[in-house]
């Protein structure tokens, strides 16, 4: 399963929908534009990794759009498609920076191979540098509390080294931002920052994702593919939510850390890699080790320098700064009204628990800006629009009900589709990778359905 965002620009509705179905089937996020002008407007908001662009369109044609896209973002990979392709057009597209040129009718296998190669190319050319500004704007390290200053101090001291770092903290505290800041402070800052969300990849695919594979090594391996360790060579590999990684994959990661070489699945030739590994988890690692879910030897390899990101309840004095930042970031953009916050509103927000931490606070600010009744967000608005968290027992009961309902829905869909994973995922409007994870999480077996 591959990850990434793809923007399809084509003026033929049937072609757009066919491409959307094929690309989404592989787990990629897709948005559609029916003209070059619409695609150019959508591009900065969607920030795609790859653009699939038709050559012949009414209004702005594909070559004009290609030039404009490259002017906005030289690093984006653009795959040109055409039903009337000529060598001259292909050459012209390549000269303007197109990644590849495909002729209609499109072969779905070749299309997906091209998209995989394009995504790999984007990563290798420093795609994360391209997106860093947008991500830092979305989840900045705002605040002047002593707890946050201590984190910044650690980043400044460990960043210039090649030492491994284990970042721990609750969901929503900003562990990814810490990892990116460490990369920016390192001598590797000009090279790739590659992120792997270990919790979002099924256990049976995680090793292919990390170490790559050789064509034909398993069903679905239609082409040679480099793994994340190879893509991060010379740069930084961030293993997010490593506590969710299978023990088998943990053993292989440990071997890479010890030996500095990777071997693709189905391959026989080890490849040397120079990768700095940063890892993060929201789990209590000592408990995971005690329960046999995390390798103690891997923990000691990763935990050279530990950084604990504090929850927002331990740095409440930063909340007014965070509110001001999010107001500046959100107000007046995307149709969100411009409003101010009264002192009472800020005080009420400062005294909330925020179990979802900075991420939850940002969502709350956005909601208040949209739904407040006057130009000033008041304490009454906070009480009305941001309900307090449920009591622990009620929250746990609600959580169990949601889990039971979701499990029952998945079991029913699997039975209806005779355990055809692709059909079940499509019926549930869920990426296959998520479905695999939920089957494992809920311990669903064919016998139980």
Describe the protein in words.
- The chain is globular.
- The protein contains 20 helices and 16 strands.
- Helix content is 49%, strand content 14%.
- The chain has helices at residues 13-25, 36-46, 62-72, 87-95, 108-124, 127-138, 146-158, 175-184, 203-211, 228-231, 247-259, 285-290, 296-302, 319-330, 343-350, 357-371, 379-385, 392-416, 421-427, 432-441; strands spanning 5-9, 29-33, 50-54, 77-82, 100-103, 165-168, 193-197, 212-213, 225-226, 236-240, 261-262, 271-272, 276-281, 305-308, 340-341, 376-377.
- Helix 1 (13-25) links the parallel strand 1 and strand 2 (29-33).
- It folds into 4 domains: 5-125, Rossmann fold, CATH 3.40.50.2300; 129-139 and 147-308, Rossmann fold (3-Layer(aba) Sandwich), CATH 3.40.50; 312-385, Helicase, Ruva Protein, domain 3 (Orthogonal Bundle); 395-448, Arc Repressor Mutant, subunit A (Orthogonal Bundle).
- The protein has a 5-stranded parallel β-sheet, sandwiched between helices. The chain has a 5-stranded parallel β-sheet with strand order 7-10-13-6-14.
- Helix 2 (36-46) packs parallel to helix 3 (62-72) and helix 14 crosses helix 16 (357-371).
- The two termini are 25 Å apart.
- It is α/β, with parallel strands linked by helices.
């Amino acid at each position: 399963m591959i990850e990434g965002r793809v923007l399809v620009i084509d003026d033929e509705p049937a072609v757009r929908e066919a491409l959307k179905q094929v690309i989404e089937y592989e787990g990629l996020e897709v948005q559609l534009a029916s003209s070059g002008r619409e695609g150019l407007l959508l591009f900065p908001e969607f920030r795609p990794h790859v653009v699939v662009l038709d050559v012949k369109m009414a209004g702005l044609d594909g070559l004009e759009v290609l030039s404009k896209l490259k002017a906005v973002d030289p690093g984006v990979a653009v795959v040109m498609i055409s039903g009337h392709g000529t060598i001259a057009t292909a050459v012209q597209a390549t000269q303007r920076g197109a990644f590849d040129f495909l002729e209609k009718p499109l072969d779905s296998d070749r299309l997906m191979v091209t998209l995989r190669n394009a995504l790999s190319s984007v990563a290798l050319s420093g795609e994360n540098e391209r997106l860093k500004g947008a991500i830092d704007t979305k989840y900045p390290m705002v605040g002047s509390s002593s707890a946050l200053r201590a984190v910044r101090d650690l980043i400044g001291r460990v960043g210039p080294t090649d030492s491994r770092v284990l970042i721990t903290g609750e969901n929503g505290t900003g562990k990814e931002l810490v990892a990116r800041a460490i990369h920016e402070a390192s001598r590797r800052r000009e090279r790739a920052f590659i992120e792997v969300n270990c919790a979002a990849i099924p256990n049976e695919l995680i090793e292919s994702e990390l170490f790559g594979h050789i064509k034909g090594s398993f069903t679905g391996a239609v082409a040679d593919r480099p793994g994340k360790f190879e893509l991060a060579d010379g740069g930084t590999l961030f293993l997010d939510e490593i506590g969710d990684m299978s023990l088998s994959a943990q053993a292989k990661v440990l071997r890479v850390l010890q030996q500095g070489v990777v071997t693709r699945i189905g391959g026989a030739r080890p490849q040397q890699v120079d990768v700095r590994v940063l890892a993060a988890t929201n789990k209590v690692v000592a408990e995971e080790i005690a329960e046999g879910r995390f390798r103690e030897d891997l923990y000691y390899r990763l935990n050279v320098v530990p950084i604990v990101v504090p929850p927002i309840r331990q740095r409440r004095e930063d909340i007014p700064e965070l509110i001001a930042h999010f107001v500046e970031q959100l107000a007046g953009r995307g149709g969100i009204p411009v409003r101010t916050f009264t002192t009472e509103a800020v005080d009420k927000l400062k005294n909330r628990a925020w179990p979802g931490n900075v991420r939850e606070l940002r969502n709350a600010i956005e909601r208040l800006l949209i739904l407040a009744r006057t130009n000033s967000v008041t304490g009454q608005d906070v009480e009305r629009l941001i309900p307090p968290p449920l009591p622990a027992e009620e929250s746990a009961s609600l959580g169990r009900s949601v889990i039971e309902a979701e499990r029952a829905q998945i079991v029913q869909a699997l039975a209806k589709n005779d355990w055809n994973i692709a059909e079940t995922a499509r019926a549930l409007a869920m990426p296959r990778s998520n479905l695999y994870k939920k089957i494992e999480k809920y311990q669903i077996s064919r016998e139980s359905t």
